[in-house]
DNA sequence: GATATGGATGAATACAGCTCATGGATAGCT
DNA sequence: AGCTATCCATGAGCTGTATTCATCCATATC
C-alpha cells in the first residue's frame, strides 16, 4: 500500500547524516515543517516508528537502521543511473569505474589506462581501492564496473579473464649478498627485513606461498604504502621486498635493483579483470578488457 | 537535476512488460494520457529518448534498455524493503529467503527447516533455486538472505560456515554386481547407466572428482529431476547414481539400496551456508545458521 | 475506405506536499 | 530558577505537479 519513494530514502539518509530534522531539511532544500510532516506520514503509513524521540534528539529504531541501510545501498545506484542516462544523452559516453584489489594491479592498471584514455576520449575512468564488501561485492553492488584482482570467481554472472601472468620475485639492493644468487630459499630470509605493502599477511603472496609453508618469518616486517618508496628503501639496503618481475625491471634504469627468484620454481601469479556478464556487450567496457589482454605480453 | 523516481522505474518496467503505454497504464492504475505525459516529461528532463516510436509500437532505445535493467534490479529491492518494514511493524517477524545451489542441499534443507519453523513461528521461509547471477550474486543483490551451497567464498563481506560434511557414494540396486564391493573404480562404471540430476557435467562431483580424472565416461547418462524417482530407478536396476551417503541411508528402509565408496579414498564433500556480513546480527538468520550447525552430526 | 488500436496534446482539476505561523519541550547558560 | 536557543510537532492554507477528460492524429487491419 505504502510506496517507498526515493524521497523517503533521501530523508532517512539525510537525517542520519546531519543528525537532526532541521539540519537535514536545510540540506534537502525543505523547511523543517515539511520534513516533520513527511516523516510522520511515512511512519504512519508504514506503521513503524523509524526514530525514537528522546527529548529533542532522534535516535533511529531498528526499523530506521534497516531503512537507512537500504537507502545507503540504493541511493548511490539511483544517482549513478541518472549520471549514466545523462551520458547517453551526450552521445556514447560513459564512466568506467574500476576497482583494484592488489598493489601490483595498480602499477599494471596505470600502464593500460593511458592508451585506453587515448582510445576512448569520451569515457572517464574512476579508480576505487576500498570496498566494504570486497571487490566482488562491489561489482555485484554496481559500485564498480570492472575489477582488477588476483582472485577471480567463476560461474556467477561475472566474467573474469586473465590479463597478466607474471613472476613474483625478491628484490634486493646493490650491496645485498643475495644479489648474485640464482634463487633464494625461505631460510635465507630469516635474518632479513621484509618490506611489504601494508596489508594482512594472509594476503601477501610472499608469506602464503613462500615463507609460511616453510615455517619461516623474517627478522623484521616493515609496511610501506608506495612502491616508489619501497624500492628506494630496498636500493639503499634497508631491506628486501617481493614484487612482480616486470615491475622491478621497470625501475631498473633508475635504481640499482636485482630480482631473485623465490625458490627453485619461482612464484607465479596472475592478474584478472572481471566484469558483470550483463555488461559484456558494453563497448567501452569490452574495449578495456581487450586492451588489457593485449598488454599481456 | 532530474530525480529518477520510483514511479519512473515502475513505468519503464510496466511498459516493457505489457508492451504498450495503454496496457501499462491500466496496470499502473493510470490513464493512458497520464502515462504519456509522464513519459514525455521524463524523456525531456533526461534529454534522452527511452523509446523510439515506430508507427504505433514502442521499442526501447539503448538508454531505455539500460533504465529497464536498473528498474528490474532496484524495484524488487524496494518492494522487499517495504515488506520487511511491514514485518517490523508486526513485531519481530521476518522472511528468511534461502537460496540453494545443489540438489543434496535441498534434502538437507528440508531436515533443518522443520525444526526452524517450529522454533520461529513468526518467520516465513522462502526457498529459491534459480539465480540469474548465481547464488553468490543473489546474496549480494539481496534476492536471498541465506545461501546453501557446496562452494563457499571467503573474505568479501559474506560469511560462510560449513554445516555438513558428507561422503558422496555410488548407489546401486539389490541386483547389482557392485553391491558387495568395498569400493568402485572409475573403469567399473564404463558400462553402466549413470543417473544424475539434470545439471551440467562440470558441476557433478561424480564427473569432476571421479570419472573425468580417469578419463572414463559411463555408457549412458540419464538426467532425472527428483531424488525419489532417481532412487526408484536405481532400485529397479535401471542404472546407478551418486548421492550423499546419509541420503541413501535415509531411503534404505523403503528401498533396497546399497552405498558403495567411490575409489579407495571416497569422495568427500561439504555443504556451507553463507549470509551477508551485515546480517550477521539478525536474530532469525543467525538462528538458522546455528540450527544448521547443530544438524551437522 | 471504414474501423480499431495506440499514442500525443492542451486545458481543466484535484490532491499531495509544501510553507507559514505557532506552540510545546528540553538542554544549556547565567 | 529563569532565560534563551534549539529542535520537533501541528494545523490551516496555499501551490504546483500529476492526473483526468476530451479530442486529435497516425497506422495497421480488414
Automatic annotation (TrEMBL), chains A, B:
Pfam families: HTH_1 (PF00126), LysR_substrate (PF03466)
Compartment(s) where it occurs, according to its Swiss-Prot or TrEMBL record: Cytoplasm
A GO cellular-component term linked to this record: cytoplasm
CDD domains in the record: PBP2_MetR
HTH lysR-type domain residues: 8-61
Major subcellular site: cytoplasm
Any one of the GO BP annotations: methionine biosynthetic process
Molecular functions (GO terms): DNA-binding transcription factor activity; transcription cis-regulatory region binding
InterPro entries (alphabetical): LysR_HTH_N, LysR_subst-bd, MetR_PBP2, WH-like_DNA-bd_sf, WH_DNA-bd_sf
Key words of the record: Activator, Amino-acid biosynthesis, Cytoplasm, DNA-binding, Methionine biosynthesis, Repressor, Transcription, Transcription regulation
Family: Belongs to the LysR transcriptional regulatory family.
Alphabetized PANTHER family for the sequence: HTH-TYPE TRANSCRIPTIONAL REGULATOR, HTH-TYPE TRANSCRIPTIONAL REGULATOR METR
Protein's name according to its UniProt entry: HTH-type transcriptional regulator MetR
Species annotation: Thiohalocapsa marina
Lineage of the organism: Bacteria, Pseudomonadati, Pseudomonadota, Gammaproteobacteria, Chromatiales
Amino acid at each position: 500500500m505504502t510506496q517507498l519513494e526515493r524521497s523517503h530514502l533521501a530523508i532517512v539518509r539525510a537525517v542520519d547524516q546531519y543528525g537532526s530534522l532541521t539540519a537535514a531539511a536545510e540540506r534537502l532544500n525543505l523547511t523543517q515543517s515539511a520534513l516533520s510532516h513527511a516523516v510522520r506520514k511515512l511512519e504512519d503509513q508504514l506503521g513503524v516508528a523509524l526514530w525514537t524521540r528522546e527529548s529533542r534528539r532522534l535516535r533511529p529504531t531498528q526499523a530506521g537502521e534497516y531503512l537507512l541501510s537500504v537507502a545507503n545501498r540504493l541511493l548511490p545506484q539511483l544517482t549513478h543511473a541518472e549520471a549514466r542516462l545523462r551520458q547517453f544523452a551526450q552521445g556514447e559516453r560513459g564512466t568506467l569505474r574500476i576497482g583494484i584489489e592488489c598493489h601490483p594491479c595498480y602499477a599494471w592498471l596505470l600502464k593500460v589506462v593511458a592508451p585506453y584514455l587515448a582510445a576512448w576520449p569520451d569515457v572517464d575512468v574512476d579508480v576505487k581501492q576500498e570496498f566494504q564488501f570486497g571487490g566482488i561485492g562491489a561489482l555485484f553492488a554496481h559500485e564498480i564496473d570492472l575489477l582488477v584482482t588476483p582472485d577471480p570467481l567463476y560461474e556467477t554472472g561475472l566474467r573474469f579473464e586473465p590479463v597478466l601472468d607474471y613472476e613474483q620475485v625478491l628484490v634486493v639492493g646493490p650491496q645485498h649478498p643475495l644479489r648474485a644468487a640464482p634463487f633464494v630459499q625461505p631460510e635465507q630470509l630469516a635474518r632479513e627485513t621484509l618490506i611489504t605493502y601494508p596489508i594482512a599477511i594472509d594476503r601477501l603472496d610472499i608469506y602464503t606461498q613462500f615463507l609460511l609453508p616453510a615455517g619461516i618469518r623474517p627478522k623484521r616486517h616493515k609496511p610501506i604504502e608506495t612502491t616508489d618508496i619501497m624500492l628506494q628503501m630496498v636500493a639503499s639496503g634497508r631491506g628486501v621486498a617481493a614484487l612482480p618481475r616486470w615491475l622491478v625491471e621497470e625501475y631498473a634504469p633508475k635504481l640499482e635493483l636485482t630480482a631473485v627468484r623465490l625458490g627453485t620454481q619461482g612464484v607465479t601469479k596472475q592478474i584478472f579483470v572481471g566484469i558483470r556478464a550483463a555488461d559484456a556487450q558494453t563497448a567501452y567496457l569490452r574495449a578495456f578488457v581487450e586492451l588489457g589482454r593485449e598488454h599481456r605480453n
